[in-house]
Design brief:
497 residues; Beta-galactosidase, Chain A, domain 5; 2 domains; eight-stranded antiparallel sheet; seven-stranded mixed sheet; 22% helix
Length: 497
């Protein structure tokens, strides 16, 4: 599979996977929002049976990533609802978990969508091999609503406290409702003309109408006869964040789940020996490369920072060109974004100079290091785990900085990179400092990818005016070595015509 296909936004192939995954993970037949006198505001029906959930866990619970996901997902079937690819906000798969975040504001059936003032989202986390976390949010606008959450099964569901239990084939399923507090449960028998449509609906209803409603469920799947206890949970709300601890027989998962509109959240996994299986890290804020080749690509970049390693390009000091334009007042404090921020040295420098900084990288370990460095420096940076070619929706910035990201992705998809900086810039206002590899010198040791001046001008001239293009050098992790030759390019977004 070509690398550029992994770095782009989801293709139709991927869309099939993700559209079905939302049904698999959410285990929802639908939710209904009732406003006033039972006026229907949103119906979002996901026809899924518990038997398909078991099959999904069987297929994906013990693999790092799979290229045959689409074949397995197509067997699940998802009639009655097709979510546009724009509904997918974030996605990641790896050996420990699968994460997906969907914007459901436009996902309702035609004629039954939310008012413009209402928003919905669904966060789905599959903790391999057998635990699902389902986090659904509704912001209903100005008028309070009551909400109903449904779970369909073929067999009778029993309720004990906040737990619902059922048997599906050779597996036991346990669904724990953590939010909303004071919810009401009931099970309704659904008659059908055949075995597939008949079954039982578990209804979880929020008793108290509210302008903002959040459902949080943890689903645990065990093979029948498995004597291990189901996962234990502990939920601690802290403002808009939910701190969720899940203790299984082998691992302890610690999740931080802010509101979807606020942030992606975090995860940490430790074993029963208290050793870290997955160090504290961010969940993705955008769609990351996926499938076997995509996961290999992520492992390649992230592995450069693990185990105390420091890659050549991580100089540990702010870029000299960046310092020059800041200290000479060429760019002034304001909203700024650092593309491919690595371990955060430049982003932290900008924050220390009064900039409101968003910093983006594809390597979770690099961002964890960056967060620690920012905490020690006493500055605040918004860290986003995302692919620069498939970013979440962000407001334009006053200043864009790129030290070494463009020249890495350009040969895969230059057009997608240019589209990214178009979305991040404001016509007539945004300035963009770009540092890229320069081919006018043969490399002696380490050299980044190199881009000719005419290619840089060709890529950016339609959108940006060039203030300068000049030669400089990259700093590297070896202060005694002469850094590779680089281009320093200052661009300003053209006025919109």
């Amino acid at each position: 599979m070509p690398r550029d296909s992994l770095l782009q936004k989801p293709t139709n192939f991927t869309k099939l996977i993700l559209n079905s995954l939302i049904g698999v993970f959410s285990i929802l037949l639908g939710w209904h929002l009732l406003m006033g006198d039972a006026q229907l505001v949103l119906t979002s029906r996901l026809d899924l049976r518990s038997t398909e959930v078991v099959r999904f866990a069987r297929s994906f619970g013990l693999v790092e990533a799979s290229n045959d996901t689409v074949e397995k997902v197509l067997q699940l079937g998802l009639p009655g609802l097709e979510l546009a690819s724009k509904s997918l906000v974030a996605f990641e798969e790896n050996r420990s978990f699968v994460y997906a975040l969907f914007n459901l504001s436009d996902a309702g059936e035609p004629g039954r969508r939310q008012p413009d003032s209402s928003r919905g989202s669904r966060r789905v986390i599959f903790l391999k091999p057998s635990i699902f976390v389902l986090d659904d949010e509704i912001e209903a606008g100005s008028q309070p609503v009551s909400t109903e959450w449904l779970f369909h099964s073929r067999t009778q569901t029993s309720i004990q406290g906040r737990f619902a239990s059922l048997v599906e084939e050779d597996h036991d399923l346990s669904c724990e409702t953590l939010l909303p507090e004071g919810a009401a449960w009931q099970v309704k028998h659904q008659q059908g003309g055949d075995k597939l449509s008949a079954g039982y609906d578990l209804q979880v209803v929020s008793k108290k109408p509210s302008q903002r409603i959040r459902f949080l469920h943890v689903l645990h799947i065990r093979r029948r006869g498995d004597k291990t206890s189901i996962a234990r949970t502990r939920l601690v709300p802290k403002g808009d964040e939910l701190h969720l601890t899940i203790e299984s027989s082998q691992d302890t998962y610690q999740l931080v789940l802010p509101r979807a509109q606020v942030g992606a959240g975090e995860i940490e996994i430790s074993g029963d020996d208290a050793k870290s299986h997955l160090a504290r890290r961010f969940f993705p804020a955008g769609v990351l490369p996926h499938g076997r080749e995509g996961v290999k690509l992520l492992e390649l970049w992230d592995g450069s920072y693990r185990g105390g390693k420091r890659p050549f390009w991580d100089a540990g000091v702010p870029s000299g060109e960046l310092r020059r334009v800041v200290e000479q007042g060429i760019v002034r404090p304001g909203p700024a974004v650092d593309l491919g921020c690595g371990s955060g040295t430049d982003a932290i420098y900008l924050a220390g100079k009064g900039f409101d900084v968003t910093a983006i990288d594809i390597a979770p370990t690099a961002l964890s290091l960056a967060r620690e460095k920012a905490e020690r420096a006493g500055v605040k940076v918004r860290w986003l785990l995302a692919n620069v070619l498939s970013l979440p929706r962000l407001e334009p910035f006053q200043f864009i900085f790129d030290r070494g990201c463009y020249h890495e992705v350009r040969f895969d998809n230059a057009a997608a990179y240019v589209e990214t900086v178009r979305q991040l810039s404001q016509p007539g206002h945004t300035r963009f400092l770009l540092l890229a590899g320069n081919p006018n010198e043969a490399p002696v040791q380490y050299a980044p990818p190199q881009v000719a001046e005419e290619d840089i001008r060709s890529d950016f001239s339609p959108l940006f005016d060039f203030e300068w293009v000049k030669e400089t050098r990259f700093e590297t992790s070896n202060p005694a070595a002469r850094g590779p030759l680089a281009w320093s390019v200052m661009l300003r977004r053209k006025e919109q015509r």
